[in-house]
């Protein structure tokens, strides 16, 4: 744990080092020799540091470092046609404390459902999900969701929405307001404090939803395509802000997205899912140095390689997966 | 400065009222029927009624019963409707009961209620209470059912307990719908108020109206109809003001002229 944390940001550290042997194998596949040779020195050290022998003792010494454990979870929905619809099938996943994990997959593969299970909003049909070693029984302020549908409180202003969580936790009004105003400023909505949600655009609502959840400091952020409705510029800005917050507070983040770039840019680990039934296809460790700077990363061949390889994997599954 | 469209909108209700009175006047002059007084006759009878102390006491007694019945109905119906909207079990229990009461005209229960409770305030207030309850329960129920689940989840994640979620999320989220029910309830309160007094003659605006009818004072009858109508319009306009303030956050941007407010 210690070693991993200290190492973050420097280049020779292992990132997201549970799931050791699988990720080791994957990485070898994802970063072929020619790239390793032609890459920067960082690239070479990262790769060489990822041998499974090196990593394994760290996680086994500290099994508590998995803040979220999902064990063989399946979710079956009864559809209106009275047929069973398997939304999630046999999902197992360990998410390390303070890790940034993205879930990537086609529409309808169960990403939101998985997030709801971790949030405690939905209980799985079978299997178990745990947070900090405790079975998840329901929602709690330790896990803060940012929903795809925003779900803002329409009768509250922007400020009222953001202050809601802190006030609920007994923080004094003046203090909660000061914190909330700072957060609203951070998400770029200064001047909109007294607007009602109906007076905001989709992208603005999404930013309020993000601020509202950050305001009560959950240990785990559950973000469901939080930047989906944003223009490219705001999206980039908020990605950077999110990374800054994360690098400062080191929350655990479970981040659902459609965008491969976004997943690679933000994450320690990308969970690739496939559809019908929703399964985990692959878990890929993203070994890119932190803090990540967008302009540097876009030029980094290792980053490009991750993006291209992940996109290719999806294309392959599309070709193979479409029933005739 | 007001735009021409705005002026027309303002003037339209006044023009409608004047038009109605003119048609009434002409029709009654043409028909020459004793039981159909002229508009002028009815209007000139209004000051006589409102100037009479006993009539005023009667009308105020009506309004008091109406306020009490309406208030009690709202206080009971909103929580019940919200609970039904959020709990299938509670809805399953109350729905059949309400379905039985729903089609019965509440004033038709008046004779039975009078047998139990007499002809006094309690019986009449109870009938008003019943008349108001159903639309308020129904709209609260629909409003609570439609509350977006993720909103409740967000609240739960912030640590709100189920009861807190009902009061602090379901209630405000369903408020626009609840107030729509209350507005219907208000009109029904006025109607049941008059009909209850028609059956249990003892005091009230309905009492004046039907006594005058019995005595063939048709000017007074029609004057009372105008007074009751005006009361309805005023109450509705006041309610609409309050409603618009409470749910400013959900009003559509363009305004819909639903009343004379
Ligand atoms: N309440 C429900 N009842 C029935 N089926 C459901 C329900 N919720 C989700 N599903 C089904 O489960 C599957 C997964 O849904 P989910 O919302 O988790 O997908 P997703 O990966 O988040 O998709 P998207 O990227 O479009 O948001 C879908 O096929 C959907 O039809
Ligand atoms: Mg989704």
Automatic annotation (TrEMBL), chain B:
Domain of life: Bacteria
Keyword Transmembrane: yes
CDD domains hit by this protein: TM_PBP2 (cd06261)
Pfam families to which the protein is assigned, alphabetical: BPD_transp_1
PROSITE patterns in the cross-refs: ABC_TM1 (PS50928)
Keyword annotations: Cell membrane, Membrane, Transmembrane, Transmembrane helix, Transport
Domain ABC transmembrane type-1: 59-239
Chain segments annotated as transmembrane: 66-85, 97-116, 220-239
Topology within the bilayer: Multi-pass membrane protein
Subcellular location: Cell membrane
Protein family (similarity comment): Belongs to the binding-protein-dependent transport system permease family.
Name of the molecule in the record: ABC transporter permease
Species of the source: Bradyrhizobium agreste
